[in-house]
Amino acid sequence: MATCYPMKNIVRSLATTFALMLAGCSTTPEQSMSTVDYVDVDRFMGDWYVIANIPTALEKGAHNAVESYRLANDGTIETVFTFRKDAFDGPEKRYTPRGFIKNSESNAEWRMRFVWPFKAEYLVIYLNDDYTTTVVGRSKRDYVWIMSRTPEIAPTEKFCDIQRSDKHPNSRRIREALAS
After folding, report:
1. In the prediction, which pLDDT does 131 show?
2. SS3 114
3. Spatial separation of the C-alpha atoms in residues 159 and 164, rounded to whole Å
4. Buried-exposed string 41-64: b where 16+ CB fall within 10 A, e elsewhere
5. What is the pLDDT of residue 71?
6. Is there a contact between 66 and 49 (Cβ–Cβ < 8 Å)?
7. How far is it, in rounded angstroms, from Cα 117 to Cα 98?
8. Which site from 89, 95, 132, 135 is most exposed, i.e. has the minimal number of CB atoms within 10 Å?
9. Structural element, H or E, at residue 124
């Protein structure tokens, strides 16, 4: 025997379901992360060796990683990311994301697109005066990249202070990566 539900219950049930769906789509505001005051994009272009990082799934097992940037005629950043998979002599992997400068006042806030239409946050949170060392992070503080123009980093650079100043929850992991 079929059960009849009053229209009021059906409407209430649909409204509750819709409200739950909207709540599931909402996001909590992220704590902002300070960027450098200004990035001279032309000086920033070129090769950057990834010295240490908290890797994305794509980068797990990456060795000898190099990120190369070139300013395209349309103002976007042509990027080539290469590394050896799982070993220093492992197979070479190559990805070509595109960078988009989001904040043109500072040029320190970008978005990187690996797959259309999704763009990931990319914040230049440290850059030394001679553009030889940089730290890139995200407001979520889930990933960070410490990069240098050379395969080795100057021991006087104080990256952990930058991470601590932003209360980065992964400061310990960054220090361990730098120590190895």
Report:
1. 95
2. strand
3. 9
4. beebeeebbbbbbbbeeebeebee
5. 97
6. yes
7. 11
8. 89
9. strand 118-127
In contact, 100 and 78? CB cutoff 8 Å: no
Rounded to whole angstroms, the Cα distance separating 158 from 161 reads: 6
Reported as type and span, the H/E element at residue 165 is helix 159-165
| Class of the domain covering 41-179 | mainly beta
Spell out the per-residue pLDDT of the chain, length 180, in tens: 555 555 554 445 444 444 444 444 434 445 677 889 999 999 999 999 998 888 888 888 888 899 999 999 999 999 999 998 998 999 999 999 999 999 999 999 999 998 888 888 899 999 999 999 999 998 888 888 889 999 887 655 555 454 444 445 555 555 555 544
Distance between first and last Cα of the chain: 71
Q: Are 40 and 131 in contact (CB under 8 A)?
A: yes
Partner residues linked to 142 by β-bridges: none
Residue 44, token pair as written in the block: 């920033």
What share of residues in the chain are helix, strand, coil (percent, to 5)?
25, 35, 40
Q: How many helices (H) and strands (E) does the chain have?
A: 4, 9
DSSP 8-state symbol, 30: P
Nearest residue to 178 (alpha-carbon basis) of 158, 164, 126 = 158
